[in-house]
Structure formats: structure tokens, C-alpha cells
Queue: 4 jobs
Job 1
Amino acid sequence: MTKILDGKTLRIEDVVAVARHGETVQLGDEAIAAIRRCRAMLERKIAAREIMYGINTGIGELSEVVLSDEQVAQFQRYLIYNHAAGYGDPFPVETVRAAMLGRVILHAKGYSGCREEIPQTFVALLNAGITPVVCEKGSVGACGDLAPMSQIALSLMGEGECFYGGERMATGAAMQQAGIPVPGLMARDGLAAINGSNVITGMAAMQLYDAERWVKQAEIVAAMTLEALKANMKPYTSKLLELRGFPGAIACARNLARVMAGSDLLTGKVKVKVQDAYSMRSTPQVIGALRDALAWARRQVEIELNGVADNPVFVAEEDRVLTGANFQGTPVSLPLDMLGAAITMVSVLSERRLNRLLNPALSVGLPAFLTKGAGMFSGLMLSQYTADMLIVEQRILSMPSCIQSIPAAADQEDFVSMGMNGALKTRQILKNAQAVLAIEAIGAAQALDFRDYTRGKGTQAAQAAVRRVVAHLDEDRPLFPDHNEMAAAVERCVLLEAVEAEIGELGSSW
């Protein structure tokens, strides 16, 4: 199925479909007409020698330098060359594809002033599976992701490197093999290809998609642990959370109740405490806060995906050129920072529940460290060490990046979002979170093996899913394969798929 790009209706799920799963795209007729109309206006202004930023002037601190006609013809090429100044390992293919898609959507709105050949070339590259090699580091997240987007824009001149057919090769050679013409760059084309926070936004879209699925698995694993610890179920009553009013907490409580439906804990057959520790009974409030943060972050990212984040902006219907700072990445940088901190918060809650599973003083009759041979064996004692190390790294990474501005470009660009730092660190926070949750899942499944009462239908499905990946720990064995394999299973949403196959789709709050 081909996604028609109109510049108005892109959702996070569309980004994932194109970037991760290779769905093809096509510019809609209305978008093509808007691009052509805008370009025609720009060409009239160029012919009239109207001074316009980044077209017949330099950029940044050099914006007061007016270029000659001969310089205008060469400026866009040099612009891409000097901005392709990143560093480091290549981004994953899906990240670059998400950024390219975002740039096409921006052009599709018809305010960028570039030739139609520019977005059409990006469309052709996406559909052919040609992905430019782009360094991960170099963007400060204002004036757009200039360094990484410039590496992408090298393809418009048939230059740079790419991944194609499982190989790393020269982009020009790949385009020739795929039959994609090299459009070259004319006035405005280069700046129109790079001026916006498309890499940050693409990464944010992918991370939100994954985080939304991670939070549901966090609820599933929490349900497993709550059942193993003989939780008092009154704090998870939907009515209690509705009286406070936060949508995320309400959704979390309902999901916990659905996963645990059918449990003896709900019928009174199992004796429970009058009141449990915060790490247990605060679960809906804490996970719910992450859910509410996800909802706001999704709204911000989808506005950005469908917005005009460029400079200058050419308004053909009014014959106007507007300059400003729509490229500023802060509207996405701030949600990314908040997302990372919120995931870390829920990971801390996960580790605290794991602690209660392992500590015989807190585990309501479970064997120490979840092993029958405590003393000779250490059980899952060292799994907690690993979880703790991961959480400390998450805490370090949870320092906001959006407040870390360093001036650049002779102080013309004296406040930047540092959104790329936010995107990179949030990616690592989420990676760690998958492992922390995997370790709790291993502990919860082990603990449930020692309980003889009936568990909820969803809890049983989750435990069975864990057991398909990690065997019960009878005797001590190296645990790193269990940790790595279970973390990979969490990343693939194995628990979520197993539980939803059994009880139906869990609720969302975004």
C-alpha cells in the first residue's frame, strides 16, 4: 500500500510504516500543485532581484552579505558541503528514512520554495530503499538539523554514501542502479532540503511509538509482580483513579484490572495486607504520569510532522516571504527530555518492585532471591545489580538537554534546542528501560512459579510468554543470556502480543 503525502495528515504510525517497514510513498496532486505554485512565485522574485535570505544572501551571521548572480548559482552546493560537518557512527536506516519522510511532508505543504524535483527525489530514494549514510552527531537542533540533513542532501547532487541492498556504497552509483535522476541544486533548493528539525522529529516519532508499547508491557509486568507479591487490589479500583481525574492513571488501573481478571487476589481467597508499599500501590499514578506525558509528546510531534518548520517561508497566495525561527527544535526537544525522564521514573518503580521480589523480608513468603537453594545458590541476586546499573545510567541521561544551549555562528544563533542530544539520550534511556523491565519480568515469572493460587488470565499469558524465552532457574547459571534474550523479547513486544491475544487490546490514553 502506498501512502499519499498531502502535508496535512501524517501520524506517528505512518512514520513507522514508512521508516521501519518500508511502505512506499507518493506526493499527492494537491501537494505537487502547491510546490509548483510556490516555486513560480520564488522565481519571479529572483528575476526581480528581490533580496531573500539564503537565496541571494549568505546565511546565519553572513545574512547581510548579498550574493552576485554567479554566486547564487553556486551557493546552494557550497551550503550543503560546509554544513555536512557531522561526526560519529551512522544513524540507523529507519532514522534517516523518518527524516527524509518528514522533509517531503514539509515540502508537500507548498511553502518551501524548492523545485518539485527535490521532494520527488527523496520520494524515489525512499521507495527504492536507498538511505544516505548520516553521522549521528553534529546537530544543535536549531536552524534545523543542518549537519545530518546536509549529508542526506548530498544525494541531490549524486554525492555521499548510502546503504542500498544491504551494502554501503556511493550514492551516485546506487541512484544510477535504481534509475533515479540526479536533480542537482538550483536557487533555494539546498537550504530547503536541510532547514528544519526533521531528524530529531523522526527520532521522536519512532521513540514515542516504541515507548507507547513499552508502557503497556510495563503494566503487564507490574501485574505479574503484584500477583506474585499478593497485592491488596483495592488501590487499582478504577473508581478511585477516576475521582482524581488523570487519564493516564485511569487507563493504567483499567489495564491492570484486565490483566489480573480471574485472579484469586480479586476474590478474597488469598490473604493480603491492609496496605502495600508505594512501589506497589502507586503503580497506576506513576505509570499514568508517563502515559499523560506520552499523550502530550505525541501531540507535539504530530503538530511538528505536519507543520511548516522552514526559513524563509514563501506564502504564494499572499506573494510574501516570511523569515523567522520555525526551524527551532524546542517544541520537540522539551517533550523528548520529559519522555526520557518519565521512562526513567517508571524504570525506577520497576526496580523497586524487583527488590521486593528478591528480598525475603519483603516478598511475603517467597524464597530469598527466588531460589530454593539460597546460600549454595544466589538466584537472581545479581540481576538486580544489572538493573541498578542501567537505572543509574538512565538517571544521568535524564538531565534535560533543552536547557544546555551553547551559542554558535558568531552569536547569531545564540539559543539552540540541543534536541539531538535529547533524541540520542532518550533512545538510550528506552533501550535501558527494555532491559530493566525484562529483568523484572524474569523475576516475576520466577516468583509466580512458587505460588499455588490462581493468577489472572492475562498474567498467565505473560508468564507463559516469559517461559518461552527464559527457563525457570532451578540451579544457578550464567544470567546474561536470559537478560539479553528477554530484553530483545520486550523490544519485540512479545509480552504485549501474548497478553492481547488472550484478553484483547489493552487501553491507551493518547
Job 2
Amino acid sequence: MSVDEAPPRTAPAAAGAARGRPAAGAGARWRRALSFRNIGALYVWVLLIVVFSIWAPDTFPQWDTVRQVLNGNAVTALVALSLVIPLSAGVFDLSIGYALGLCNVLLAYLVVKAGLDVGVSLALTLLAALAIGVVNAVVVVVFRIDSFIGTLATGSLLLAGITLVSGNSQIVGSELTGGFFSDIANAQIGGISLSVLYMLVVAVAIWFVLEHTVTGRWLYASGFNADAARLAGIPVRRLRFIGLIVSAAVAGGVAGIAITSQIGSGSTTVGPPYLLNAFAAAFLGATQLRQGRFNAWGTLIAVLMLGTGTAGLGLAGAPVWAPSVFTGVVLLAALAVTRAERNAALG
């Protein structure tokens, strides 16, 4: 029998084969999507909810806790999201906490001390955040100083700026505690504050850029192997320059404005505490959904998981140092997993 005369499959067998292959492929895709390696933080999040519901049954399993986690971690999420673009491009920004702090006291100073219109003050604060990003980018990209050291140094300069603008004292005034200014972040829709909306808008924008544009693919290529990316014609230095500007704009501009509206003052200590939580969320987020890649939705999952753990420890009456230990352990675990996955991806 020739090849052309090969016996035909029976109709049931052909239909079964046609159905079997896609079914098996779909099953494999679902197994990968739901694997602990892909969405482990979601499973840990559910476990935390169960544990704290048992540990603090009278206070934790309440709608108020959901609102506390969302509203109380929106600024943390914004700061963490600010890291996604530069980290994807392969650079660190350790100045984000100080950028937030400087924009906080600057906005309060402009509104209270300088007596400027709120709209003008907001615009000047956003411009200041962009200027911080440009300085970081010049230090790291133009002067070729390691981003870890360079942004740590600029962070020290920003800390000096915080002291200079604030006079090393808290800036308070009725202009910051009522009306339009307070509503910028505190106005609520169904119990959820507008700061959560800003968080979602920034997350969608970053997701779209990274997942649906050529620039996003270039950013990932620059972060995984900068030398190979340069040889392929990708403008690595330009991407890193832009990434550092975006980082400062989101952390200093958007998050700085939101936190000033939330607390109704300019505080000399408000910014730096966000640094550890932001990096913990960004690196933990890189192990979720897009393993080994920094991404917006994984970062949000990580922020809310960390926020749930912190809120649960507080409601359960844990020692005051427990949330810091929890965050530090999560950061170490996330760094270890991210490094292992990147090494595996590079062969």
C-alpha cells in the first residue's frame, strides 16, 4: 500500500484525536496558570485570611478589614508600582521613599506656607517629581554610576531637601485638612477611597506598556541581558533614563500627592518607611503570573497579601515588631525565588 493509500481513521477516532489534543493542551495551560509557582502569593494570601479569621474571629473577618487593607495600602502599592518599570529595565531606585517625602513636604509648604492655589501647587509638585527622576537618570545613565549607589546618594540629597523645605518640623494647616484637597485621596466610592482608583489606573498603564507594546518587550530584554539587548539595537540607556523618570513621577508625584491628602500634613518622616514594603512587593510580584518578570498585577497581589498580613497581625494583637519581621522574611524569600528563576531562564 502506498503512502497515498494509507487507511483513513474512523470518524470517532478522528474526532477523539481532534478533541484530545486541544483538551490536553488546555488542561496543561490551566495547571500552569493555577500552579503554586505561578500564583503562590494568592494561595499564601488565602492561607493568611484563614489563619487570621481563626486567630482573631471577632475583628478580622469583617468588611472593615477589607476596606482597611485596600485604602491603607494604596500608597504602598503606588510606590511599589513605581519600581516595576526601572526594575524591568535592570536598574534600582532606592530614592523613592525620599522622593515621596520631599514631594509631601513640598506640597504642604506650597499650599500652607506659600499660600499658592491648590492646582498650581499640585502642578509644581509633579514637576518637582519629574526633576527628581531626571537627576536620578543623569546620575545613573549619563554618569554611569551604579544605580544602587547612585540613587542611594540622591536619596541622601532628597533627605536634606526634606529638612530644608520643612524646617525639620511638621507642616500643618487647615488648607490641608478639608475641602477639595482632602478629597483628592480621601473621597470614597462605596467605602473605597480614590487613592485605590489611582493605584488601579497606574497598574493598568504599566500592564499595558509592559505586555502590549514594543517598549515593554525592550524593557524586559534590557533587564534580562543588557549587552545582548544593545547588540540587538535596543536603546537600553534611553529606556533606563525614562524608567527612572517614571519611577520618581509615580512615587514622588502621584503617591506623594495622595499621602499628603490622606494625612493632611507635611511630615519629615513619612517617606522612607515605604521603601522596604515597596521592594518586597515588587520582588514578590516578579514571582507571580510572569515568573521572573516584574509586572503590575503580581505587584498588586503582593502588596495586598503583605497588607493583609500586617493588618491581621495588628488585629490579632501581635508585637509591634512582628509586621517588620513578616515583611523582611517575605522580601528575602522573594529575592531568592526571583534570582533562582532568572538563573533558570538564562540557562
Job 3
Amino acid sequence: MRSKKRYTNATFTKRVDHEAGRHRPSRALSEPTVCEKCGAVYVNRRWTAANSAAETERHKHWRPPQTTVCPACAQQRSGEPRGFVFLDGAFFVAHHEEIEHLLRNEAERAAEDNPLARIMEWKRGDGHKLTVTTTTEHLAQRLGDALEKAFGGDTHYDFSHENKLARVNWQRDD
């Protein structure tokens, strides 16, 4: 028997951001705007790296930029990460300098595309464990992919469906 109830997408969609956008400003920033801490530039409704040559060429005729704090700097100040990368295992103990160097380089490459994707903190844990916190869940996933591609090991990805948070666990015991 068919139901007389009309189909609605509301029963299948989940609200991802329970903060309801409270971390976002109520209005778009005026352009151009420069972050007073990191120097990132807000132009064309997008944050770009401070040393981007394309932005300086295109917008010479604009008024002097305003200063503000970019979302990544504000997030670092508040201490709310969006991604965690947990590293563990005997291989990590033996090669921790190489692994940390790889993670720093991958974070720098990610910042070229999105200057708001940053590593917030490096925490040493019990003996040989390391926890890296990131400002975006995509950076955590990218770091996990880079670790798996470069060194192998077991990588597990956990994503929160309630809010924007990623946990990446990497371990190699060789």
C-alpha cells in the first residue's frame, strides 16, 4: 500500500553545523581586507595567501585595505580545532623527524590553495605518540593521505556527522 504522505527531503538531510554559522560573520567583509596577524588577504569573497602576485596585479585601483583577524587566526586564538591527526607506532619513533618534516611540507602546500588550512598545535603524548591539530578537517585528511602514501601503515578516518570534525589515526609498527 502506498503512503499518501508527500515526499520531503527534511527527513533525510542532517544538519551538519549545529553552531548554525555562529563562527561566520553576519555580513561579508568589505574588500580588500587584510589579516593583521598572518597577512592573508580577503578579495573576491575568498581568503588568499599574503604573497599572492595575482591579487596585487588585479586590484591596484582599489581603496586601501581594512584590517581584521582572519577565521583561521580567530580559530587558533579560541583553540577550537576541526581536525586531529594521531600518530603512533614503532616506525614513528624511529622516523619522527622525517614524518614531522613531511607534515610541515604538506601543510605548506595546502596553505597555497587555502591559507585558512593550518596546523594549530603539535602535542607530544605518552612516550612516542604525536597529536597534530588542524584548523580544517580537510587538512587533517590530507595529512593522513600524505602519511599513507609516503610511509604506508594503517590509516583510519573518522568524521563527525554532527559537526565539522575529522580524526585521522595513523600507525605503523615495522
Job 4
Amino acid sequence: MLPLKSPVEPMLAKSADAVPRRAGLVFEPKWDGYRCIVFRDGDAVELQSRSGKLLTRYFPEAVVMLREALPARCVVDGELVVTRDGRLSFDALNERVHPAASRIELLSRESHSSFVAFDLLAIDDTVLLEVPFAQRREALEQVVQTGPHVHLTPITDDPDVAEQWFEIFEGAGLDGLICKAADSPYTPGKRTMLKIKHARTADCVVAGFRWHKTGDVVGSLLLGLYDDRGLLHHVGVCGAFPAAQRASLVGELEPLRAGAEDGHPWLAGNHDGGQRLPGTENRWRAGELPWVPLRPERVVEVAYEHTEGGHPARFRLNPRFVRWRPDREPRSCRYDQLDEPARYDLDSVLSGEVRPRRP
């Protein structure tokens, strides 16, 4: 029996604006995948998500590869990732969580997952939570057998190298940097690490909104961007407003509701033409989410971290409201304002090298 049992809360991180330069810190790439704590006890392997739920049934190939790569009795913290076209793909990873066993089996072959290990929480009968991270990392390097789909995350104590990683690794689909103290214990559920993530702003058309769950204030704004063909694509929602702002938005948006359904670009749009539309069913929800159309006449500036979904893209996470932009014309809100990081060789990231991808 393992000395640690699932669920174990993973150690978390709080945001930092820049790479810190204090002594005694180490840096790792921040992987864009599913946080996964692996429990191996002989032939039994369980994959636990950040929320404590089990991912095991969705990644049967990971169970096999981790049984081969990890010692017989251990608990390892890491990240499950899936690559597509040489980059990490959160879309492809999400597709792996499917209710049908036949689909899970097919995707386990066609969209093979990989595991990136970055901490060792227990080995045999010994719990390592109070052991300094530098010693846990050294032990992790000694016990993990790396291979095509099992990796150790790169690590550096040089802030100059970390800043270089931050700038160029995004092109391989990574999410930023993680920083931790070399002498720190593992603190389940506590934000004792730092995360440095890419942050940008974009000006978007507000073409609709959804009511808050209370039903009487605005819950979120539906955001759009125009492509080169003049199609307005739904790229995400902006929410998390303070209560007072939710209430004031009702009156602020009311004038835009009049006549909004006449020729609205999303009510007349279709997916066959490649247009992203709001409110459609997907595998995460059984029915459509209702939304209220607005005449696409107002522009809002939002802060976002990165995008996903190819072309046309959408925001990976819900962006944050920054300010209204009455000086911007809605038609000027185009995809070409979004940053596109230079492509980068994912294999170089996994090996800790700095080598740009050749054209």
C-alpha cells in the first residue's frame, strides 16, 4: 500500500509579473495540459486530475507507459499533454475525455498522450513532501525512465535562461514559466510556487451577451473578431464582472438590442463556411446556451493569455475586461491584431535546449 493515497491536492502557483531574480530559485516551463498526479502500486496505476477526479479510463496508453517508466511504488506529480503538428494541443487533449470506450481506445492510438514529470511525492514507503525540492528533483531524475512519451521537465536556476525560455518556448505551445524555491517542501493545495504567463490585449466586437445565472444582470459578453473575408467569428466570452458592473451593463447594452436580430452575423451564419458561432452544442454540454444578440457596434479591450483552435482561433481561456474602446470601429477588430508566436521545436523544449525550428 502506498504511503500517500488519492486524492492528493497538487501544489499550486500564484501569478507574478516577471521572472524573479532572487537567489535559491529554480525555473521550469509551464506545460499546457492536464495536471496529473500518478499513483503506481505494482501493476495498479491511477491518474488523478488537479480536481481529484480520476483520468485513468481516458488514457489507457498512459497507464501502460507509466507502468514501464516509473518505479513499482511511487507517487509522481506531472502533466499529461498531447501534441499535434509539433505543438502542444489543448484541443486534442480535451478530445481524449470521451464517454464512449470505443472512442477512447481509438484516440489512445491516434492521439497518443505524453507525460511530463516534475516532482516526486513518495517512493516505496517514504513520503517526500517535507523534503526540499532540490532533493526531490534529484530523486526524480534517478527513478524515472524517460522515453518517447515520458519526459522530465527541463529545469534551470539561471534567470537569464528562464527569460529566454519564456520568450521562445511559447512557439511550441507552452504556457509560460513555473518558479519555485529549491529548498521548498511540497505544499498540497497551497499557492507556494510562482507562475509567469504571457499576457496580451485585443480589441473585440461585442455582438451579444448571456444573462447571469441569477437572471437579472449580465453574466458575460460575447466577443467577436473579423477575418479577411469579413466574417465575424465568435472567439470567446468576457465575464467575472463585479456585481455593480453586471447590473449597470443591463442598461448600457439595452440600446444595442433594438433590431439586433435583423441581419445579425451570427444568426445568419453557418459552420459549413468555417464560421465560429456561439451557443452551439458540444460534448461538454447537451444543449445550447441561450444568448441575447446585440448590434455589433461596440468595441471592448480584453486581456488574454493565448489562443487555440487553429484558424479561425478562439481565446483559450476567458479573457478579462480592460475597458471600452469608443474610439475603435468594430470592423477594425480583426484577427491580425493577435500575436502569433514563432514556431519552436517541442523536442528542444523537452531536452532543455534552445533551438528554433527550421522553416
